[in-house]
Amino acid sequence: MLMLMKKRYFGFYLAGDMALYLFVKLLRGDFVYSLPLQGAKEMFVSFVMRTMMKAVTDFTGCVQLRHPGELGGLYWSFSMFGALAMSFVGVLLYYRAGGEVIEESSAWKIIGWLGGAWCCVFGIFLLLIKEEYWVTFWSSKTGNQFAVECFVSKDTDRDKSEVLMLNEKQWVTIRGQVRQWVIVNWWKWKDENPSWFNEGFVGRVPLEWIPAEDAKALLERLRKQGGLRESLRVLAAAVGGAEEEVEEVEEIRGSMRASAREGGGGGGGVRGSARGIRSSPGRSARESARPSELRMSSRVLPVN
Question: How far, in Å, CA of 170 to CA of 163, rounded?
Fold first, then answer.
C-alpha cells in the first residue's frame, strides 16, 4: 500500500526498519558476525550478513533466524508482529491519501483475514513444537552470550572446542579460561588424537597458546613433585605475561635437579620456590631471556 502511495515511502520504511535493527545490534555490542574474520573484512562481512539475514526474515519469516547469533528470539518476534501491524497502518494511510484501487472495505477484509490466518498458523506451530523451545521466541540472549555458553556450559572437550570456530570478539570475556583449557589439555589431545582435534581446530588456536615440545616433559615432572595445582602456578611464573624473576625460575629448576639426585623430598622444594615467586616483587621476566625448557608465551591461570 505504501508503494501505491509513493514508492519513496516504502523505501523510507525499509531503510528505517533496517537502521533500527543495526542500531540495536551495535547498542548491545552484538554487531560482529560469528565468522572468524578480522579487520575490514570482519566489519564488511558482518554488515552484509546482518542486513541480509534481516531482509530474509522480513520476507520469509524463517523461524531458524531467531537464533541468538542472528536476529535473536525477541527481535525476531518484534520484526514479525511489527510487520503485521504495519500492514494495517499501510492500509489506513493509503485510503487517507485518497487511494481507490479497490474498495476500502474490501482491503480491510483482505488484510484482516491474512493477518488472522498468519496468527493462527503461528499459534498452531507453537503448539506442535516442544514447550522448552517457546522461550526462544522472546529470549534476549545475544550472539556473544551464546558463544560464551558454548564453552562455559559444556562438559566435553568436543563441545567446548566449538567456541574456537566463532569470532574471537564474541567470547573475549572468557579468553583467559579458553587459553587455560587449551594449554592444560593440549598434550592429552596430542596423545589421544580425538576426531575433532584436526587441522581446522588447530588452525583456530592462537600460536602463543600452543606449548613448546619441551614443555611437556617439564609439566609432567612438576605434576609428579608438586601436584597439578602447584604445577600450573609454577608454570605461570615461567611463561610470558608473568612478572617474575628468571633467576628464581632457575632456582626452581635447580631444586628439582637436586631432588632427583637425592631420590625424593622434591615436592617441598618446588612448593617453597613457588611461594617465593608469588611473594617476590621482581622484575618482569620479559626483560631477560627465558630458559628454553620453559618456552611458552602465555601464562597459565590458576585452577579453581
Answer: 9
